């Protein structure tokens, strides 16, 4: 018998096998370390809120049951939090899952999506799998997003979706409410604006768009960052009810882990814990900026739970990344110019930040890269 496996769709067949997120566990194995100082994936160094942990622990014996496919309790709590109705909320297995719903529901093969070159990669990943075309604009030198150019490109390319992470990953840059509201006037009316607010919890609510539902916008939020539940895989989208109804047509019914629903619901009642995390992260960002200043490395402005250290060139940034890995430190770096000259470092606990400061100084000595351009 000489059978061959069937072929996937042409779009999938043509895709290279890429893995934007090589796990730190695998990197550790490759570098011969048993553990790493883990500052590369923007996970919370401060863990989940205690009551979320307790609720999940109590619920664990019932893991034999499916979760509520409608996430009704959680959607009601989220609707109260964001002053909308539960019909405006869709829960998913993280923003990564919700991005797939947006692309799956709004893009046909050949359709165009627009984003910043080198931004959070999962969106483009979904677009490629559906034979969509990505058009991109570059970051500014300081990592900010040229919003007017982004929306102008969406209009000229007749895009179906325009994607913005705000605060952005990997740059950390942020566009405040007034600027965003002004720019929104230029979003063509038939474009879906996917606003990825994975780091929205690190901004003051007055800096974000107000809670009103705008029919052009899908806002995506997650429990993975400030709420410390990345491994639970849970996030949500806020949108007009026709958009949420569309997502619900293609959503996998049991996409969300039962324990994640329970943990997320309990986490919403831990505002003081999350506020303390946000405050500590803000202190940590300042500490990193001061560290960069001491070592002759500028840092990019950030409103997220990470900071980019500017090594001046891509080569030097790659050399420092490798030296840090040899020293057991896991960080990542932006992949696309002009910010590929940076390394991106998650804000750790005070102890982790102190350890990082020592290792970064040593790594710079190691590669002879004390200051950019030297
Ligand atoms: C971390 C991150 C995500 C992933 O969120 P999940 O809810 O864990 O899938 C999405 N977008 C951005 C910009 C991120 O940095």
Number of domains: 2
Would you list the SSEs in sequence order as H and E? HHEHHEHEHEHEHEEEHHHEHEEH
Biggest sheet: strands side by side, in what order?
Answer: 2-8-7-6-5-3-4
Q: Mind telling me the CATH superfamily name of the largest domain? A: Type I PLP-dependent aspartate aminotransferase-like (Major domain)
- Amino-to-carboxy terminus distance: 64 Å
Helix content: 25-40%
Globally, the shape reads globular
% residues in beta strands:
5-15%
The Cα radius of gyration reads 21 Å
Count the strands? 11
Low-pLDDT windows of residues: 369-374
CATH fold type of the largest domain: Aspartate Aminotransferase, domain 2
Give the structure's gist in a few sentences:
This protein has 374 residues and is α/β, with parallel strands linked by helices. The chain has helices spanning 10-13, 24-31, 50-59, 72-81, 95-106, 122-129, 147-156, 177-184, 241-250, 258-267, 271-295, 314-326, 350-367, and strands at 37-38, 89-92, 112-116, 133-137, 161-165, 192-196, 217-222, 235-238, 306-310, 329-330, 342-346.
Provide an overview of this structure.
- With 374 residues, the protein is α/β, with parallel strands linked by helices.
- It folds into 2 domains: 126 residues, Aspartate Aminotransferase, domain 1 (Alpha-Beta Complex), CATH 3.90.1150.10; 218 residues, Aspartate Aminotransferase, domain 2, CATH 3.40.640.
- 39% of the residues lie in helices and 13% in strands.
- The chain is built from 13 helices and 11 strands.
- The strands form 3 sheets. It has a 7-stranded mixed β-sheet with strand order 2-8-7-6-5-3-4, with helices on both faces. A two-stranded parallel ribbon has the order 1-10. The chain has a two-stranded antiparallel ribbon with strand order 9-11.
- Strand 5, helix 8 and strand 6 form a beta-alpha-beta unit.
- The longest helix is centred in the C-terminal third of the chain and has 25 residues.
- The protein is globular and about 55 Å long.
- The chain starts with 9 loop residues before the first helix and ends in a 7-residue tail after the last helix.
- Bound molecules: pyridoxal-5'-phosphate.
- Pyridoxal-5'-phosphate binds next to helix 5.
- Pyridoxal-5'-phosphate (PLP) binds next to helix 5.
